[in-house]
């Protein structure tokens, strides 16, 4: 019994026998299902997100089709829902029907009604191809349940599971065509070697929520390797090799080590004065009046120490120290037991264990624990309206009426849903002021763990970029050997301005520059780039970050329910914010709220 | 509590972060609400109603957008409902994106998915721009009420108010985006100086229905100025100045004064022989066998007297004396107490008082007296079907089921609604034979009432045109100084063939020609043109006019109910037809019919 709702197709294709047989990527006639939501896209052209157009027509067609797929996904439509395609080609050459093969591949067996229009020009010089789609998304009959969960990431799935275990009926609606949210594991070579593009690490001691779940599901865990040396890519490109977890004795700056140790100690101390259950109480408010950079500068003016602080915010949040409230950052670290524990790869540390089959296996496993027909995929939520009838959740694939709703999307995405009545202002302020971070994860697959030959751990830290930090993310057991490199914060923002090939090259060049002096660096099997910041349904990789002043005013609203709508997600966790453990515990908290409220209502 | 139904938007716009940021007038993706009515327009080109295309691209774009707005409005869609726009430009020049600013202004913050297609040519030479829209109009869940009122003009609103006061439930559906119908007051300079583009005048003695309402609402009234002289623009452009209400002693034609006085008396006499409650009885039938012109010619052959008759039909009905049944016209004048009273601006006359805040303030005030969520705007009615369940009123924004329905649109518009069962033949004949009048009202705003300096009233009458009559429509109290000029009947029809700028110039030239010899005529602040004949939801300014023969056969059907569908509107009034007072009394009559029928049904 599958937990996933099986949708009846939105379309019916007809090819009348009196008309000529169309090629396999279109039909003469398409009709929609009886009750549909309609989706239209703007004409999509073949440029990347920086508005750069490839010279060649084929390149433009491929990019335009990618963009079309994204535009459709944004409204919960898939190519299977496209009933009409119109596309335009400049300077069309009858002898070169370049578009046909690309469109056939893109349509993947689906056959919309299609019109092809040669044109003398398009909106800007250089644009050679444009394509627009009209789609229809069949609407499921309205379902009434006790609880609707919005979002099938870890927090949402955990909440749904708890709700169903309590004997309540529950549906989960998910914008993506898969469960897992930011747990997303792929097998790019299709050889059973999963790599994680999102959250990857857990531990088995103080991350009890996720660890319990891993045990329930019986998933195999891999210990993060910490043997081998770490390389510091110091100012000026100077390389310094040191033992795991140690600060090098000598760096470019004279008293660097002392200053790095000092900022480590000061941060640890500041964290331990905070109360994660009441983060804005007392003196904490002072910390919310300044950025982390300002705070760090009250402790040290050391360039190296400040660069280390920068490494932290980049790696952990995808932002710069000047963008985040000191309180927000320190409270975040405190949620994982303080900086040394949160950043550690050792036992009790934040990065101690990984899943052999990737972290998404937990989400997939959790979904399998749900009742049949619980999860509606490709169903982004457009509107949540509360009335005396209940809470109406309007999704791209139909409406659901719940007694309570649990929203498990990040605050920064609240604005993509129309709430009626509107969210209270504090929640909206949290959503509005969440800093758009930039997390650019690169997983580089190799045929062997070549760095280990030279006694290296694969980890390095760079004050120069484009990579700020790296880790060995191999799973030796199934022959998956990889380095995962983070080009985050301003480094990622800068890198993202380049075309994809140049970005990849810059990453590989950096790896070569850092490891090259110690060991021969082979060519990779594959480089996978993942920018969560550009991900429609995530926008940020760990948590949206608050600048100074926001927590003091609005943090209190983070977990409060809005009528019968409840809010979960890793950013709402008290412990291990931004981690899978925080997601799971927040889901449990949301389920508890709803179960209690419904039990109360029964009395 | 607003009387207006607040609609959930039909559309949801999405701009995926991986795609480039589109300009503010379009979105990459738009999805419709689950339950929608769909609207498509033909490609709209940039010509005026005479099919004249401006030379310049910008001019064509502006006209095409105006036409598009009209095409959408005709189906109850607004630009907020447009989910897709496709537009075509001939000979597109990449360096001149003229369309962008126009479309941005037109879309007014709404962002459909858009495709722009440069093309080598369009359907005819000279066409440079074409635009088509796809819109979706969200359907409200069906509501069941005691009474549905179609049309939120004065008669419909009055009916609804009476129905609600009787304790019955009632909804009002209105095609326009505003209430008021032909009471329409604008503040073109946005300085609190309202001018009336539709009905303007009432009195406080024999127009008791509208006056009572004005008192209930506490609206301030302005007495129509009648001091100062009137100018006759006689044949050949000869100007004659005379006192208010007087016929000049000398006109171009020798015995003009006597003949004008004669036709006045004959008309008065003929009117007083009619019974407005039984207008086709007895000898009256004879009057329905001829046109007003034919009847007038039986009284006089004076060119001046016939020109005066022509002034009447033009000013009062927007038609020529040859187009209207003598009976129809005389009965119409009798409904206002006879010609001298109906045409008078003095106490007891038809044009004695105006509303300081414009006549629409009565409709707006009346709407505010209704219960919350009573009025559905932008909801033209497509179909009215009667069955044993009740009367189903299908509007562009959803269906309503009423026990009774009150239709407050003009007979000439009955054909725009599908009635099931069809209307009886007499009602259809009234609708079919209603003469398409032409009322072209111009309000010319000035910074001061310059005509008064020369002892002039601002009123003139012209045998030449393009203006047939004018009035001072200033509201001194709030510094609004204006002349309202009517270019009606054939004068208006001729004028309407010219481009807008030429029309305005012709009007201003005429004013200069008439007043210039007496006083310096300054440039106006603004000229507002309003052709009610081109108005989708009115078609005529006062009432549709019957040619000979129609009243005798079909007048009896004017007010009869069709099953549970009742008919109101100023043309159905016995008294003050074509006036606001008639509208209000007809609404009261319709409400009474329905209340009695429902009370009967309860017994």
Give a structural overview.
The structure is a homodimer of 603-residue chains. By secondary structure, the first copy, chain A, is α/β, with parallel strands linked by helices. Chain A folds into 4 domains: 11-138, 60s Ribosomal Protein L30, Chain: A; 143-182 and 358-424 and 560-601, FAD/NAD(P)-binding domain (3-Layer(bba) Sandwich); 185-226 and 438-531, Polyamine Oxidase, Chain A, domain 2 (Alpha-Beta Complex); 250-343, Guanine Nucleotide Dissociation Inhibitor, domain 1, CATH 1.10.405. In chain A, 29% of the residues lie in helices and 23% in strands. In chain A, strands 8, 9, 17, 18, 19, 20, 21 and 27 form an 8-stranded mixed beta sheet that branches. In chain A, strands 3, 4, 5, 6 and 7 form a 5-stranded mixed beta sheet that branches. In chain A, helix 3 packs parallel to helix 11, helix 3 (154-165) runs parallel beside helix 16 (580-602) and helix 5 crosses helix 8. Strand 3 (36-41) of chain A pairs antiparallel with strand 2 of chain B, so a sheet runs across the interface. Chains A, B: InterPro entries: Amino_oxidase, FAD/NAD-bd_sf, Flavin_amine_oxidase, Flavin_MAO, RutC-like_sf, YjgF/YER057c/UK114. Chains A, B: FAD binds at residues 155, 174-175, 381, 571. Chains A, B: Its EC number is 1.4.3.-. Chains A, B: This is Amine oxidase.
Count all strands of chain A and give the number.
27
Q: Give the name of the CATH superfamily of the largest domain in chain A.
A: FAD/NAD(P)-binding domain
* Main structural class of chain A: alpha/beta
Distance between the termini of chain A: 34 Å
Query: What is the mean predicted local confidence, pLDDT of chain A?
Result: 95
The total tally of domains of chain A equals 4
Largest interchain contact = A-B, 52 and 40 residues
- Oligomeric nature of the chains: homodimer
Fraction of residues in helix of chain A: 25-40%
Number of helices of chain A: 16
The name CATH uses for the topology of the largest domain in chain A is FAD/NAD(P)-binding domain
CATH architecture of the largest domain in chain A, by name, is 3-Layer(bba) Sandwich
Give the low-confidence spans of chain A. none
What's the level 1 CATH class of the largest domain in chain A? Alpha Beta
Rg of chain A from C-alpha positions?
25 Å
What does the main sheet of chain A amount to? Answer: 8 strands, mixed
* Overall shape of chain A: globular
- Measured by DSSP, the beta-strand proportion of chain A falls in 15-25%
């Amino acid at each position: 019994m599958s937990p996933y709702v099986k949708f009846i197709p939105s379309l019916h294709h007809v090819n009348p026998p009196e008309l000529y047989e169309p090629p396999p990527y279109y039909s003469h006639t398409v009709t929609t299902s009886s009750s549909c939501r309609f989706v239209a896209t703007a004409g999509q052209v073949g440029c990347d997100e920086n508005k750069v157009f490839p010279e060649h027509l084929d390149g433009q067609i491929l990019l335009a089709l990618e963009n079309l797929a994204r535009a459709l996904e944004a409204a919960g439509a898939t190519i299977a829902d496209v009933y009409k395609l119109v596309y335009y080609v400049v300077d069309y050459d009858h002898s070169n029907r370049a578009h046909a093969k690309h469109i056939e591949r893109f349509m993947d067996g689906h056959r919309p009604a299609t019109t092809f229009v040669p044109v003398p020009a398009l909106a800007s010089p250089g644009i050679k191809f444009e394509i627009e789609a009209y789609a229809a998304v069949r609407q499921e009959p309205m379902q009434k349940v006790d609880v609707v969960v919005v979002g099938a990431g870890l927090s949402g799935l955990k909440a749904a599971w708890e709700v169903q275990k309590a004997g309540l009926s529950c549906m989960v609606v998910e914008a993506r065509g898969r469960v897992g949210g930011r747990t997303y594991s792929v097998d790019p070579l299709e050889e059973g070697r999963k790599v994680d593009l999102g959250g990857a690490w857990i531990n088995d001691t103080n991350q009890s929520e996720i660890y319990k779940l891993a045990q329930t599901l019986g998933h195999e865990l891999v210990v993060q390797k910490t043997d081998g040396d770490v390389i510091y890519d110091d100012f000026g490109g100077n390389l310094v090799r040191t033992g795991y977890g140690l600060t090098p004795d000598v760096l470019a700056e004279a008293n660097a080590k002392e200053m790095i140790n000092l900022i480590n100690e000061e941060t640890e101390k500041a964290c331990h004065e905070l109360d994660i259950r009441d983060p804005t109480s007392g003196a904490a408010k002072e910390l919310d009046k300044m950025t982390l950079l300002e705070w760090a500068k009250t402790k040290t003016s050391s360039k190296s120490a400040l660069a280390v602080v920068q490494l932290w915010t980049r790696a952990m949040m995808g932002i710069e120290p000047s963008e985040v409230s000191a309180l927000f950052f320190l409270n975040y670290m405190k949620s994982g037991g303080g900086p040394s524990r949160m950043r550690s790869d050792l036992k009790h540390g934040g990065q101690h264990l990984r899943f052999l089959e990737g972290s998404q296996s937990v989400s997939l496993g959790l979904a399998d624990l749900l009742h049949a027909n619980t999860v509606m995929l490709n169903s982004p939520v457009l509107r949540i309206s509360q009335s005396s009838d209940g809470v109406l959740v309007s999704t791209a694939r139909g409406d659901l009426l719940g007694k309570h709703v649990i929203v498990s999307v990040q605050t920064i995405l609240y604005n993509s849903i129309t709430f009626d009545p509107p969210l209270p202002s504090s929640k909206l302020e949290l959503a509005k002021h969440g800093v758009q971070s930039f997390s650019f994860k690169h997983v580089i697959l190799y045929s062997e763990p070549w760095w280990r030959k030279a006694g290296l751990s694969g980890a390095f830290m760079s004050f120069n970029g484009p990579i700020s930090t790296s880790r060995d993310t191999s799973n030796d057991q199934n022959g998956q050997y990889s380095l995962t490199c983070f080009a985050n914060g301003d480094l990622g923002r800068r890198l993202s301005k380049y075309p994809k090939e140049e970005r990849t090259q810059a990453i590989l060049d950096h790896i070569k520059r850092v490891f090259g002096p110690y060991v021969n660096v082979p060519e990779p099997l594959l480089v996978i780039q993942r920018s969560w910041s550009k991900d429609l349904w995530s926008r940020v990789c760990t948590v949206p970050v608050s600048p100074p002043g926001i927590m003091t005013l609005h943090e209190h609203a983070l977990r409060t329910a809005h009528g019968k709508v409840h809010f979960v997600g890793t950013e709402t966790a008290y412990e291990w914010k931004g981690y899978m453990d925080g997601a799971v515990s927040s889901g449990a908290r949301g389920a508890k709220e709803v179960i209690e409220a419904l039990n109360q209502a029964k009395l």
